[in-house]
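TEACHING EXERCISE
Course module: macromolecular assemblies
Task: Read the component lines below, then compare them to the predicted structure of the full complex.
Student: A.B.
Group: 4
Components provided:
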Amino acid sequence: MPPLTVAIPRLIRLLLVGSTWTALGQTALTWAVAMAVGTVLAVPTGLLIGRSVWLQRATKVVLEIFKPVPPVVFIPPMVLLFGTTQSMKIVLVSYAVFWPVLIQSIAGMESIDPVARQTVVVFRIRPVDRFRHFVLPAAWPYVITGLRIAASLALIATVVTELVGGANGIGEKIGVAQIENVNTDVFALVLLTGVLGLVVNRTFDRLERTTLEWHSGRS
Amino acid sequence: MSDTGGRAVDPQAVLQVESLTKSYQPDGSSPVLHGVDFEVQARELVSVVGPSGAGKTTLLNCITGILRPTSGDVRFAGGTVDGPPDRLAMVFQDYGRSLLPWLDVMGNVTLPLRRVVRDKARRAERALHVLESVGLNGAERKKPYQLSGGMQQRVAIARALAYQPILLVMDEPFASVDAQTREELEDLTLKLRKEYDMTIVLVTHDIDEAVYLSDRIIILAGSPTTVRGNLDVRLGRDRDQITTKALSEFNELRAIVHAGVRGQELHP
Amino acid sequence: MMRKAPARTPDLWTVPRHVLKLLSYIILPAFLIFLWWALTVHSTSFIFPKFTKIVSSLKNYWMTAHGMGELWSSLRNLMVGYAIAVGLGIIVGAWLGASKAVRQVFMPVIDFIRSIPPPVLLPLGVVLIGVGDDMRITVITFGSIWPILFATIEGIRSTEPLRLSMSSVFHLRRVDHWWRLVLPGASPHIISGMRTALQIAFVLIVISELMASSSGIGFEILQASRTFRYADVWAGAIVLGLLGVVLNLTFGLFAAAILRWRTAESRARGMS
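Instructor-supplied answer key:
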C-alpha cells in the first residue's frame, strides 16, 4: 500500500502531464454543463409545481417515488444500455442535478408566506413584479441549497459515468490505473478527485452561507 | 429586623460566601461581583434578590462550582468549592430545557439517582415518595410535554429532592409560570422545606416572593454588584398567601428590599 | 318570524369532488406508464424493448428465487457496511464532538477525505484489499461514514447548555451523561446523517458490484447487459428504484421509532 509519501510526489508528476489536465478538464466540463442543464430545467419546473396545488397533487406520487432513490444509482444501468457518448454523459449527470434542485425549488415556492400571496392577488401586482419581489427572494435560498447538494452529486455522477462507462475523465483514468494495477497512480488520482471535491464543496458551501446571511439580513 | 455585618468562618454554615469577587476579564478588571459576603445556615431558606443583570447568575455559578471566583472563597459543607460540589441540587428556571423529553417523569427524577442508588427498585421507591410529596401522584409514566408548566417544575423539584441534597439551589424557579401556579409552587416549597428539613437558596427577582418565602434576604445591587442588605425575615414559620401578605411587617420588609434593590439607603 | 334553515348542499356533489382529487394524484403516473408502453409497443430495437417484455422480465427473472437471492446478497453487504459506519460514525463523532482540541487536529484531514467522491474509493479498495465481500463492506463503511460523523459532531455540539449544567450539578455518571442525555438529544441530527449515509451506501453497493463481483444486483445487471438481455437491464433499473424506496421506507419507520418523543412533543407544543 503506497503511503502518502509516495502518492503525493506521484500526483505532482502526474500534474505535469498534459493528459491529466485533459481528463480534469473533461470531468469539469461535463460537471459544469450538466449543472447548467439540470438547473435550467429544474428551477422553472419546481417553481411552477410549487405554485399550483393541482400540480403538486399530480406530481406527488412521482416525486415520492423518485425522491428516496439516489439519482446516481440509475446511472450504471443507463450507461450499460446507452454507452457514454458526450451527450449521454450530460443527460445522465443532468438527471442527478435535476432532482435535488427540483425538490428545493418546490420547497422554496411553498415557503412563500400565504399572507404575502394574498397581498399579491388583492393588489393585483403584475406577474413580473410578483416574481421579482415575492417569488425570487423567498425561493432563492432554497435554490442555492439545491445547487449545493447538486454540485457534489454532479461530481459523483460524472465520476461514476467515467468509472463505470469509461467516459473520458478522471474517473476513467482511475479505472484504467486500477486495472493495470498501478497502485500509486490510483492513490494519486484519488487524492486529486478529493481536491476537486473539496473545491466544489467549499465553493458551494460558501455560496450558500453568504446567500443565507444576506437573505436573513434582508427579511 | 437587623442588618448583620461581616462574619468569621462558621463551621456550622452549610454555605459560606466570603469576599467573593468575579470578573470576566483576564486581568480581573471591571468585576461583575465585588466582595460578596454571606452565609447560609442549616435549615434556612435564604433568598438572593436583585435586579436583572445584577450578577445573580454569576453568583449562582460560583456557588455551584461552574465558575471559579476571581478572588474570595465559597465554602460548602466545610470544604472549599472547586467544581460542582457533591450533595448540591438545583432547580432551574427553564424546566422545559432542564427536563429530558425522551424520558418519562420517573426517568427524569431517577436520573441523578442512578449514581447514588444502585438498586432500581429502591430508586423507584424514592422517586415515588417525592413525587407524592410534590403532588404528582400517578404521573410517573407521563412524558414532560404531557404536563403543564407548573407540573413540569414540580418534576424538577422532585428530581432535586430525590437526590437528598444538603443544599437546594433554586434559580428563578417560578419566573416562567403564571401567577396562580407561582403561588401554588411557593406554598409547595414551604411545605417541602418543612417536610424534608431542607436548606434552600432561592434566587429571584420577585420581591414579594422573596419576602414571603425567606428566613433571610440577601439584597444584591449596584455595579459592580455588592451585598446591599442582609435582612432577617421574622414572619413566623407558618405562612399563608393571604394573611402573611396582609401583615404590616410584610409590607415594611417589601419596601426595604425594594429600596435596597434600587440602590437606595436602607433604613433598618 | 321563523327563519327557514338554509338548504343543505346535496351530498351527491361531494362524491365527484373526492373522485377528482384522487384522479389528480393518479393521472400523471398512469399517463407516464401509458406513455412508456405506447412508445415501445411496436419496438423492435434491442435497447428499447417493449414495455411488456420489461414487465415479464420483472416477473420471470427478478422476482424469482435467483433474483431475490442476488438482491439479498447485495442487501447483506450493504447492511453490514452501513451498520459499521453507523457504529463507528457515532463513536468517533462523539469523541470529536466533545473536544474542540481534538476537532482542530483532525477536522482538516476529515474534511478532505470526505470530499473524495465515494465511488472513487472503489478502485482504491480494489487495489488495497482486492475483490470480494470484505472490500465491498470496507468501501461502504468508508464511503458512508462521513455524513454520520458530521451529524453526530453537530448534534453533540448543539446539546442544550442548560442540560450540561444540570449534568454537572447532579454529577451524572459518564454513561448516563452520554447515553441518556447527550446522545438522545443529538439523535435528530444523527438520524438525518444516517439517512444521507444510507443513500451513499446504496449507490456504493451497486457500483461495487459492477466493478469487482460475482454476485449481487449490480453484477446481475452487468451480466444482463453483457449478454444483451436488455429487458433484464431495464427491469433491473426498476428493481433498483424499488429497492431505494423500500430502504427509505424502512429507514423512515426506524427513524420514527427513535424520534417518537420528538414528534409527540412538537405536536403537543403546537397545540398549546
